[in-house]
Each structure stands twice: as structure tokens, then as C-alpha cells.
Amino acid sequence: MPVLPVFRPVAGRFVAPAAAPSSGSRDPLDSPLWPSMAERFLGERRAVFDDAVQVRLPPVTEDQTQVPVTVDARALGRADELLVIADLNPFPLTLRLETPAAQPFVAFRMKIEQGTPIRAAVRKGDVWHVGGRNLDAAGGGCSVPPVVEKKVDWKSLGETRARIWSEADGLRLRLRMTHPMDTGMLANIPLFLVEDLSVADAAGTVLARLTLQEPVADNPTLTLLPDRPAAGEALTLRARNTNGAVFTVRVPIPPETGAAGSVAGREGRL
């Protein structure tokens, strides 16, 4: 059965939201929540379902608190921003990636409350290109207390391990930051997460900027594809958490294709 759009009153008339898929299109994941998700997160811009936006998920969900997700929209060419949305999560918007000088690609791990469609919406100009897949999961990753008590090593908070590979079409950056991503849904555990992460060149020009939300898994693990900067021998990672702490790390850029530069460290200030 086709999914009906959500209508809203405008000047005495009822019209479909502009962000919903165009007339004659159908949500390939057949989710009754998608029209409201599109209206909420995609604004007034047009949205189209596009196979060029690939979402890769595991065939079996073994741990609902650490679900690997990869979004690859490089087939679209350059884009402006990328959103990851999980329709049935208590916090549907998972992350936002702005790509002023990076490929529309991100790999990360997230928490899942239950089985849900997971979508990526990639904006090129005034059009959102949407792809996604259904994830089958038992759930409980967001609101159910862990079986083993989670312990935070406060001395290592913000410690980051990162590595850059040089590739023919740019750089591949992988990082892992020690930080809890507490959703605020568990009793006596307030919201506490890394909310902003940027990648900049030696001149301070931002190549990629991430806004992380509650579903991102503890100790965020991310892969990005920034452009190789014209000058400078390192990229600077700058992260800020909800308590206002800022952590910065410089990661060396390898000079040759196939080489890699890595770093493990942390600089922080409150």
C-alpha cells in the first residue's frame, strides 16, 4: 500500500510538504514515518529517492549499542551536506556532515532502540538525494541499561587515536575518541556527548564538520574522506562536548599514495 504524505494547512488550504518525495514516487522502505521525517529534517527542499546514495549495514545486528553504518554517496559527486536518519529511534537524527572540502562519505557506529529504516539524505544545492536500508535489530541500545556497568576513564576523556591514508583522490581519515555518548535516557545519567567535530587544514580552513547526536555510539569511531589540502603537513581535529570541553589533535598527512600517518594523543581545555 503506498505511503500517504502528511498534509499541513497553508492559508486555508492543505498542501503536501515540499520536502516529501515528489508525486508518483514511493518510499522504497515503506515506512509510515518517512513523510514526517522528511518534513522535520529536510525542510522545504525537494527530496528524491536515489540509488546513488548507498547505506551499508551488517546482515546481523550482534550489539545494538555498536551498529556499524557506512554511507557512500560519492556517485553523486560533490555535495553540501549529509544527514543520517533512523526513523524509529527516539532521536531519529543521528549525525550531520557538512562537506565544504570532503567527499559525501562517512562510516561510524550507532545505538539502535529497535529495528528501523536507516536513511542517508545528501543535499546537492536545493535537492535532497535519499537512500537507505532496513535494519533488523532486537533493540534496547538507547534506553536499556547495559548488562555490564559502563565505567568512564576520566583521565582518558577526549584521548584520540587517528590515522590518515593518502589516496589517489584525496585522504582517508579514521579516528576513535574516548568519550561516553550518554543519551540522558537512563536514570541519574545526564546527557553527555561529543556534539561537534571539525577537520581543518594548516590554515584553519574547515574541510569537514560533523554534528553528532545521541544515537552515535560510545567512544565515537569515524571514517571521513577529506580533500588533500594545498599546503601543510597535518590536519587538525577539534571536538567539543556538551560540557564545553574542547579537544584538539594534529594528525600528520602522509606524502605518498598508500602511505599513512598516525597519532595518538589529546590536548584539552575546559
Q: What this model shows, in words?
A:
The chain has one helix at 34-41, and strands at 8-10, 13-15, 46-49, 54-56, 67-72, 81-86, 93-98, 105-110, 116-124, 127-135, 160-167, 170-177, 194-200, 206-212, 221-224, 234-241, 246-252, 260-265, 267-269. The chain is mainly beta and 270 residues long. It has a ten-stranded mixed beta sheet with strand order 3-10-9-6-7-14-13-16-17-19, covered by helices on one side. It is globular and about 50 Å long.
Q: Which sequence of strands runs across the widest sheet?
A: 3-10-9-6-7-14-13-16-17-19
Low-confidence regions: 1-24
Question: Radius of gyration, Cα only, in angstroms?
Answer: 19 Å
Give the fraction of residues assigned to helices.
Answer: under 10%
Q: N-to-C SSE series?
A: EEHEEEEEEEEEEEEEEEEE
How many DSSP-defined strands?
19
User: Number of DSSP helices?
Assistant: 1
Distance between the termini: 53 Å
Overall residue-averaged pLDDT value: 85
Largest sheet: 10 strands, mixed
What global shape is seen?
globular
| SSE class | mainly beta
Indicate the proportion of strand residues. Answer: 35-45%
